Amino acid sequence: MSLRIAVLAPVNSSDYNEGLLASIAPVVPPDVEVQVYNIDQGSPCIQNRLNLAENALAVVRLAQHLEQQGFDGIWLSDFDMCGVEPAREVIDIPIIGGFPTSAFSALGLCQRFSIITILQSTLALQRGHVANYGQSINFASIRSIDCPVAQLGDVEVVLVKALQAGLAAINEDGAQALLLGCTGFMGVAERLSKLIEQDLGCYVPVLDPNQCGFGFLLSLVRMKVRPSRLCYARAPLG
């Protein structure tokens, strides 16, 4: 029997859906059915705390609907985990977002990681994720490429900026692996890793948040585990 996994893009736009499916394709096994969903209100992108707050309740409502439709798990395609925490108080299937899955994957490969993020507005926000998940001792740095979500589709320009930021994180901050701090970084991770290897002469992993997140979620679904009710007490959704 196949598993049903929903990819929930927590934005009021379907512009990124095809790219998200292409991004996770290498880690989707043949026995898994995947569908992408978007919220129908709020911001068309997540670039700051206001966007997170604006879109979170719509994410929770959609997550509840997806559970009712029989999905086995939800990959919330957002590095900043929009709506994940409150959704866990409402639904009984696993839902997980981008930062922890990328960070935990990196720590299976190295001891210190840096985040390559999009804008100045996400620097402090994502430093907060590091502290909240107890990863400060393993955190080397975070660097912005000053590129809004709407411009991440220009992969060649993104690669130039990300290479500069990534090399600085490695050479100046001591990073041993890089996390891409936005799920809009599509088609970047593998190419960036190869460019860094060409420059340094050694391999450095660059983690694609969509692949890390989807793969991590799938392992939770197969193990038949979900968020603890001792941490996420059930709350009624009005």
Give the helix/strand layout.
Layout: E1 3-9, H1 17-24, E2 32-38, H2 49-68, E3 73-76, H3 84-88, E4 95-96, H4 98-106, E5 113-117, H5 123-132, E6 139-144, H6 155-173, E7 177-180, H7 189-200, E8 206-207, H8 209-223
Parallel strand pairs: 1-2, 1-3, 3-4, 5-6, 5-7, 7-8
Helix pairs in contact: 4-8, 6-7
Instruction: Supply the CATH class of the largest domain.
Output: Alpha Beta
Order of helices and strands: EHEHEHEHEHEHEHEH
Mean pLDDT over the full residue set = 97
The structural domain count equals 2
Task: Please give a structural write-up.
This protein is of the alpha/beta class. The chain folds into two domains: 1-96 and 210-221, Rossmann fold (3-Layer(aba) Sandwich); 97-208, Rossmann fold (3-Layer(aba) Sandwich), CATH 3.40.50. It is built from eight helices and eight strands, in the order βαβαβαβαβαβαβαβα. A four-stranded parallel beta sheet has the order 2-1-3-4, sandwiched between helices. The longest helix is centred in the N-terminal third of the chain and has 20 residues, at 49-68. The relative contact order is 0.17. The mean pLDDT is 97.
In short:
The chain has 238 residues and is of the alpha/beta class.
Which structural traits does this protein have?
single chain, 238 residues, alpha/beta, Rossmann fold, 4-stranded parallel β-sheet, 8 helices, 8 strands, globular
